[in-house]
Amino acid sequence: MILNKKFYRHKTLRVAKNLIGKYLVREIDGKKLRVKIVETEAYLGKSDKASHAFKNKRTDRTKYLYRCGGTVYIYLIYGIYYCLNIVTSSVYKPHSVFIRAAEPIEGIKEMKQFRKKNINDLKELTNGPSKLCQSLKLDKTFNGKKVYNPDSELVIMSSENVEKNYKINKSPRINIDYAREDKDKKWRFYLSNSEFCSN
DNA sequence: CTACAGATGGCCT
DNA sequence: GGCCATCTGTAGG
């Protein structure tokens, strides 16, 4: 089942936690690529010094954060890599959940092709935000698309028949030392005991 | 195994 | 001009 629009219209910390264990499904050339989300981070907009939308900053890049929950926000980082976010909350709050890592489930052959490196170790496909974008062939053209829309090439699905009692840990977010007093907030969530988390 | 420098360009001041 | 929600190759223990 595709998660509906309402799923994203809640407090961002809750959505970040609830996204752990869900399936991210990418359709490309009739092939289905499926991964299980194992690591996320919450970015709380106006009041969060680590957020691109701190103080409600609105630019050509960040405008997608002001769309409805379930909208895709992808940005270029370090000139070469992409990072995936899912917008949450209401259109008045530019919040999002950053997807940091996942476990490859289906379409592994295709993911290996999209990553340029020769990968032997499965977790090297998706154990980082930009590795994930490479494996799923995601880029800025996905900006503004809706992950609750069945016609999208990128959707998020609930995981029925998968163990429901996930143990989820919290920690500070990664690589946001510039965020001063917000850098120690425990807004990163990850599936405990998963080898597929980032390092 | 860990440590670190370099890649590379859009974004924002 | 400086920074950046990253990754990789290489150097060294």
3D structure, described in words:
There is one protein chain. The protein has a single domain, classed as Roll (3-methyladenine DNA Glycosylase, Chain A), CATH 3.10.300. With 199 residues, it is mainly beta. The mean pLDDT is 95. It has helices spanning 12-18, 108-114, 129-135, and strands spanning 23-28, 31-43, 72-77, 81-88, 95-106, 154-157, 168-171, 188-191. The chain contains 3 helices and 8 strands. Strands 1, 2, 3, 4, 5, 6, 7 and 8 form an 8-stranded antiparallel sheet that branches. The longest helix is centred in the first third of the chain and has 7 residues, at 12-18. The protein is globular. It binds a DNA duplex (13 and 13 nucleotides) through strand 3, strand 4 and helix 3. One of its GO terms (molecular function) is alkylbase DNA N-glycosylase activity.
Attribute tags:
single chain; 199 residues; mainly beta; 3-methyladenine DNA Glycosylase, Chain A; 3 helices; 29% strand; DNA-binding; DNA damage; hydrolase; Formyl_transferase-like_C_sf
Highest-level CATH class: Alpha Beta
Our Rg estimate from Cα atoms comes to 16 Å
- The residue-averaged pLDDT reads 95
Percent strand: 25-35%
Beta-strand segment tally: 8
As a percent range, the share of helical residues equals 10-25%
| Main β sheet profile | 8 strands, antiparallel
Number of domains: 1
What is the H-and-E element order? HEEEEEHHEEE
